[in-house]
Amino acid sequence: MSHVPQAWAGLVDDAAIFPPGDAALPDAVAAYVERRGEWYADLVGPLVVRDTDLPEVPHDVPVSVVLSSGAGVVEGVATLATRKGLRVVGLEVAVRDLDDPAGNVRRIGTALDALRDQDAVSDAVRDTAVYIELPQTDPGPDWLAAADAVAEAEAHLKFRTGGVEAHLFPPAATVAAWIDAALDRETSFKCTAGLHHAVRHRDHATGFEQLGFLNVLLATRAAFDGASRDEVAEVLDDRYANDLVALARQSDLAGARRWFTSYGSCSISEPLDELVGLGLLEVPHE
Which residues, at least 6 apart from 69, have a Cβ–Cβ distance to it below 8 Å? Predict the structure, then answer.
């Protein structure tokens, strides 16, 4: 029996091997497997790995695979995953052609269509969820055309909400526009980087302004309920934990997860401890 409510189940993808965690793959796999027996195990989604890591991934660990070079490696990754019997539950690919992002997405879509027609690829791999990361810019015409192409390919969006430099943390207005674009196309999304904590804050070590994953989830709920883009940005900018917790208690967060599916984090303990500390996740009694 799961002790994690639907609102939080699978929220955190285990990205331990990526910065700033940079865990060695064997250590990340061992921690993932060991966590299966913990009461909070269902908080965690798949282990996020690079396509170059696949030869070393155990067949019984669900993985979301970050593709190293776009559409060109889709077939090879799918073939290797099928041959090894891997539990690939996601493919993640970034748009690299910033001059023609929609064309880049369409090329990815063509590769996915070819993959789905291959008899040599297992059904599980053929039908896996695909997340396409769009550029970290305000949604202008080219960006929106790329989002259209993602929807047409029946893929999902991926938004980068942080990184190792200040400019990689997008302002609330930009993220609000991304969420609006996703919902307008009825396309779910995941986030990556920068959401280590529940509530928006300024990181003491780096001085970077960072979004909170609770902010993003509540903003998604607000956008779905018809809030304006400015109102959604206000939720993303809110740094008062008490206000956000009160809003969370009266919101259908499980419904919002239909759209904001998960985010990658190199730490599992940080979001877990904060959800418990805020009273949004209860530690079961022995």
Answer: none
User: Which whole-number Å values give the CA distances from 240 to 231, 244, 272, in the listed order?
Assistant: 16, 6, 19
Does any domain span residue 3?
Answer: no
Q: Is residue 131 part of a domain?
A: yes
Tell me whether residue 136 is in a domain: yes
pTM confidence score: 0.94
SS3 127: coil
| Of 242, 104, 229, nearest in space to 177 by CA | 229
**By percentage, how much of the chain surpasses pLDDT 70?**
99
Residue 246, classified by CB atoms within 10 Å of its CB into exposed (0-12), middle (13-18) or buried (19+), is exposed
Q: Which is more confidently placed, 46 or 205?
A: 46
Are 102 and 142 in contact, with CB atoms under 8 Å apart?
Answer: yes
Strands 189-192 and 260-265: parallel
With respect to residue 81, please indicate whether it lies within any of the assigned structural domains.
yes
Model confidence over 54-91: pLDDT tens digits? 999 999 999 999 998 877 888 888 888 888 999 999 99
